[in-house]
């Protein structure tokens, strides 16, 4: 999830803030109602602080028992906005080439070189942004994506390319999609996961269960030996020591938690990685240059 700055909304324009990867903005005013307007809207304009503008279209707007879903389409990308916060939870980059987002989803795709071989889980699959990046860089991966909202998954299959990830790559990789509570016992698999990516939010906040040490111990039990958790801990705090999710992780795994903060242009999310701090030079060498530079910013919470 990317937190959006609150631009003003008028009848003639939507003012937006430019993130590193593209456009971050409040949604159309029709979305800021208790019940969404469900029919597709015609193309409108986004007017941004740079005085440039971009066309967008609302592909889907629907209420579910779990989310208020809004999917926007532009020439370059499609974006999934959820909840009353209207924050971006997934982005699908159109066209050929690497689908870099310029945000924390890119960091999730750096996980495979520092974990054992084996299946990787994504708890909080959303529209599949992290899965798309992982299978692009590591096409033999076996991914297990968990999402609680069946309707969200249906919309992601229709509009965000998720169904393509559910087909085997030429290297045998695949995303297996499961509907259910990622924190339940049903997500456990024999032998455990090599890694678990955790991106669980509701109403703009990290799930309250992730502020409990016991939850993290249960998640850690789902890993195989030497497996790791990589976590989106959200943002807004001035230092990692004040991030409640990171603090809880440090209590759960003393001496075994690492952190980094995304730059302002990329959302300012805090990320956590369990286990010993990897050899950053070796880790970077196993990644594309873009990610290799970024992983050098990881640091231990227990220097």
Structure report:
It is a single chain. The two termini are 29 Å apart. Strand 4 and strand 5 form a beta hairpin. Residues 3-51 have low confidence and may be disordered. The chain has helices spanning 104-108, 129-137, 150-159, 162-165, 213-220, 244-252, 280-285, 289-295; strands at residues 15-18, 23-24, 44-48, 53-63, 68-73, 77-82, 87-93, 120-123, 142-147, 174-179, 193-198, 201-202, 205-206, 223-232, 257-261, 270-274, 299-300. 19% of the residues lie in helices and 29% in strands. It has 2 domains: 15-93, no CATH class; 104-300, Vaccinia Virus protein VP39 (Rossmann fold, 3-Layer(aba) Sandwich), CATH 3.40.50. Belongs to the methyltransferase superfamily. GO terms for molecular function: methyltransferase activity. Keywords: Methyltransferase, Transferase. One of its GO terms (biological process) is methylation.
Strand residues, percent: 25-35%
Task: State the helix count.
Answer: 8
Q: Using DSSP, what is the number of strands?
A: 17
* Structural class label: alpha/beta
Order of helices and strands: EEEEEEEHEHEHHEEEEHEHEEHHE
- In CATH, the homologous superfamily of the largest domain goes by the name Vaccinia Virus protein VP39
Unreliable residue runs = 3-51
C-alpha Rg (nearest Å): 19 Å
Question: What percent of the residues sit in helical stretches (DSSP H or I)?
Answer: 10-25%
Strand order within the widest sheet? 10-9-8-11-14-16-15-17
- Looking at the structure, the CATH topology of the largest domain is Rossmann fold
Known CATH architecture of the largest domain: 3-Layer(aba) Sandwich
Q: Biggest sheet, in brief?
A: 8 strands, mixed
Rounded to the nearest angstrom, the distance between the terminal CA atoms is 29 Å
Estimate the global geometry from the Cα principal axes. globular
Domains (count): 2
């Amino acid at each position: 999830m990317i937190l959006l700055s609150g631009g003003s909304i008028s009848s003639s324009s939507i003012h937006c803030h430019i993130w590193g990867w593209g456009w971050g903005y409040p949604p159309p005013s029709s979305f800021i109602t208790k019940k969404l307007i469900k029919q597709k809207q015609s193309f409108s304009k986004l007017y941004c602080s740079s005085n440039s503008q971009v066309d967008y279209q609302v592909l889907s707007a629907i209420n579910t028992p779990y989310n208020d879903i809004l999917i926007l389409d532009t020439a370059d990308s499609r974006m999934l906005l959820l909840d009353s916060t209207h924050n971006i939870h997934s982005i699908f980059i159109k066209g050929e080439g690497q689908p870099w987002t310029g945000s924390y989803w890119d960091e999730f795709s750096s996980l495979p070189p520092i974990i054992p071989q084996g299946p990787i889980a994504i708890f909080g699959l959303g529209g599949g942004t992290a899965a798309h990046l992982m299978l692009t860089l590591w096409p033999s991966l076996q991914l297990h994506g968990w999402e609680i909202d069946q309707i969200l998954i249906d919309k992601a299959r229709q509009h965000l390319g998720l169904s393509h990830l559910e087909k085997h790559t030429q290297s045998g990789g695949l995303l297996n999609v499961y509907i259910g509570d990622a924190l339940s016992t049903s997500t456990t698999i024999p032998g455990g996961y090599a890694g678990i990516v955790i991106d669980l939010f509701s109403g703009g906040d990290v799930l309250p269960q992730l502020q409990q040490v016991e939850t993290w111990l249960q998640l850690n039990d789902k890993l195989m030996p030497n497996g790791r958790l990589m976590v989106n801990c959200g943002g807004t705090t001035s230092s990692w020591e004040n991030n409640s999710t990171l603090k809880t992780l440090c209590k759960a795994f003393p001496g075994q938690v690492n952190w980094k903060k995304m730059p302002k242009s990329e959302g300012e999310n805090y990320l956590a990685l369990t286990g010993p701090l990897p050899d950053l030079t070796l880790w970077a060498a196993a990644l594309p240059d873009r990610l290799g530079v970024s992983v050098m910013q990881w640091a231990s919470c227990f220097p």
